[in-house]
Amino acid sequence: MSTNSISTERKTASFHRIIVLAFILITIYPILFVVLTSLKETEEFYTNIWWLPEKTAWGNFKEAWVDARIGEYFATSLYVVSISLFLILLFGALAGYALARLEVPFSKTILFLLLSTTFLPSETVIMPLYIMMSKLDLVGTAAGLIIPYTGWGLPITIYIFYGFFKSLPSELLEAARVDGCTEMKAFGKIIIPLMMPAVATCAIFGFVGLWGELLWASIALSMSDLRTLPFGIISFQSQFGTDWGPMSAAICLILIPLIVFFLFVQKYFVQGITGGAVKG
Predict the structure, then answer these.
(1) Which of 259, 252, 238 minimizes the C-alpha distance to 63?
(2) Which of 6, 208, 221, 265 has the fewest CB atoms within 10 Å, counting from its CB?
(3) Domain residues of the chain, as ranges?
(4) Distance CA 55, CA 41 (A)
């Protein structure tokens, strides 16, 4: 290999590293900015917006957690998201398995129709959804969030599980059937132990989407004392201004579960993405 070729490759590699580094900085800086702001008094935020806090205001976290009731909203969000995510993973896995392995008629058409619902803007379904939830007397309740959240999360979850189950060798299920296993027994003993990558992928997508959901929560809970975390943060804003220190502390409290959850399942994440994309 010539010296010019080696030099060109090194320049290309250096350029790629610079691009990646710039992307990392662009991604991390907003989080760092929020963390620094959460440690400042609101008055200091206006006079020292870009630099380190002169005096660490740990009281912002107490004010956010206790006085602004973020702790209560945190519990509500955790309850709603946990149940919604469990239902999404349960029904998504069963539906994906059925469409991929049980020779359901028009399975690909069904899958396409499910995915087509994700192309619709959320605003187009808000009014009929609100009317339906009102008639069921579920507006302002946790069930009024859990049911729509489950429905919104199912299409993409079914699609990921469908691709994952399609990628599994047929010999595994055929051997189980030969040994006398029913479909549900084969699913429980053979498929479930292999599902962790797909489950982790769907769980990450679902958790991130539901944990920060605001549009439907702000409508469904507008006449109720029940609040989720994103909706509860609005309480920091008033007609006279925004309490930036405690508000940023509340945002940090929202970010912590996302980071912890991702770190817990990230080792399965790439496996799930590639496993769900092997076959369509």
Answers:
(1) 252
(2) 6
(3) 3-38, 69-275
(4) 8
Does residue 89 contact residue 161 with C-beta atoms inside 8 Å?
no
Does residue 239 carry a pLDDT above 90?
no
Determine which helix (DSSP H) or strand (DSSP E) holds 241, and give its type and residue range.
Answer: strand 241-242
> How far is the C-alpha of 264 from the C-alpha of 113, rounded, in Å?
33
H-run or E-run covering 237: strand 237-238
pLDDT (tens digit per residue) in 177-213: 777 777 777 777 777 778 888 888 888 888 988 988 8
Mention every residue, 6+ apart, whose C-beta is less than 8 A from residue 258.
Answer: 207, 208, 211
Evaluated on CA atoms 243, 245, 246, 251, the torsion sign reads positive
- pLDDT tens-place string over residues 45-71: 777 777 788 788 888 888 888 877 888
Non-local CB neighbours of 279 within 8 Å, separated by 6+ positions: 163, 166, 167
Output 189 or 140, whichever has higher pLDDT.
Answer: 140
Residues 244 and 112: their CA atoms lie apart, in Å, by 44
Q: How far is CA 19 from CA 13, 28, 91, 202, 266, in A?
A: 10, 14, 41, 29, 24
Measured between alpha carbons, how far is 45 from 41 in angstroms, rounded to an integer?
6
Rounded CA gap, 32 and 30, in Å? Answer: 5
Looking at the chain, how many residues does it have?
Answer: 280
**What are φ and ψ of residue 242, in 5° steps?**
-120, 135
- Assigned CATH topology for domain 69-275: MetI-like fold (1.10.3720)
Mean pLDDT of the chain: 81
Asked whether the beta carbons of 229 and 71 are under 8 A apart, the reply is no
Q: Could you count the other beta carbons within 10 Å of the beta carbon of residue 214?
A: 13
Q: Which residues face 241 on adjacent strands?
A: 238
